[in-house]
Amino acid sequence: MTTEVRSLREFKMPDVGEGLTEAEILTWFVKPGDTVTDGQVVCEVETAKAAVELPIPFTGTVDQLFFPEGSTVDVGTAIISVAVAGAAPAEPAAPAPVAAVAAPAETEAVPERREVLVGYGPRTGGTQRRARRTTAAPAAAPVAAAVVAPIAVPVPVPVVPAQAPVVEGDRPLAKPPVRKLAKDLGIDLRTVVATGPGGVITREDVHSAVVPVAPQVGIPVVEAPAPAAAPQPVAVAADAGAGSVAGSVPGAGDVRIPVKGVRKATAAAMVSSAFTAPHVTEFVQVDVTRTMKLVRRLKESGELGQGVRVSPLLLVAKALLTAIRRHPEVNASWDEAAQEIVLKGQVNLGIAAATPRGLIVPNIKDAGSQTLPQLAVSLGDLIDTARQGKTSPADMQGGSVTITNVGVFGVDTGTPILNPGEAAILAFGAVRDLPWVHKGKVVPRQVTTLALSFDHRLVDGELGSKVLADVAAILEQPKRLITWG
Description:
It is a single chain. By secondary structure, the protein is of the alpha+beta class. 30% of the residues lie in helices and 25% in strands. Strand 22 and strand 23 (441-455) form a beta hairpin.
């Protein structure tokens, strides 16, 4: 038997980009009471890769917005409810006992939240995650109090992972990015106190597990004061320690900026790359006078097409693609799970772009197969789209190698960090007039510095050196784009 009713349907945060686990709600375009139709955009969200508008997949009246603007929401979490007209089928009798069984456990673990986790289903075991985590929390407090109290003189305070009792049992609940963070920081997830819904370990929980450690209680300098004088220094040390360790005492004029969206993703990616891939960086100075002349000629002649932007970066990109064609082994990635090196079939050339939202690295798909005019158009479109903040998540996935143009800031060179999953990144420095030996004479020439960072698991010194030398040789004699291409 059915009855005609208006039921509530929830729209959950979708995975708008491959592998993303959360997004920040930037703007709501609707409010409670508004009527929405299937396909109507209801909000704009910012993921770790781009700003995306979300259309709702059904028609009805907005009942509730679960999160305000500025909130960061996990993928799979309901963000809006809509009252829709429809028939509600009668519930079968079987589910009634299930509800009765689930009710007592609700105060401890909220099991249904576990289904939201990427890659995890609900556990069938009887152990409640929340109860196990609660027992570990009190153990950390006495330790912190015991080591801070004896401090009487300023000493260096090293930071090491917190050690809490390891509890054997079910695998701790955490999303893959959180597990990766814990691995990078050397934290055993079984020792981390979970504060997320349903016993889920969050990034904040992992960072909280890294705490300052005070000197050993048995250090002679701590034992020297007479017992009668102990109470006063202990109180002072405790206050000083709380401020210096926890950072609770703000400095004059300090401003705290929440780390989220693109900047948060960039920070996580750089930490992951720096502590996962063994970086090697090589440098070379090169006379690019002929390349700069070619850039001027192409601009003046318009040979690449009407309105096509021509810049030194274009020829640097083409030089790198030519070097990769000559040494395809550099176009690879490391598969940690399979313990394999993946040689990629095409070159997706990433270009690091500074935007108001932060640093992003969109890439030109199959750039290695493009002619110089095609590459010029693709490069111009990529830069324009990035500056407008309209780069899609798909444009930032699957990169092979990256170029970062630090020269536009007047910087000569740097040691660029690899974009995660890539084998190499080339930094293009400022072009300067410098004294240079040319045809046996010291004359002013236009010179730049190139820096190539590469993953030493994939690229050895010989291969990296050959790639960098080829790029330099092409920029010194751009006719090699023809003879080597």
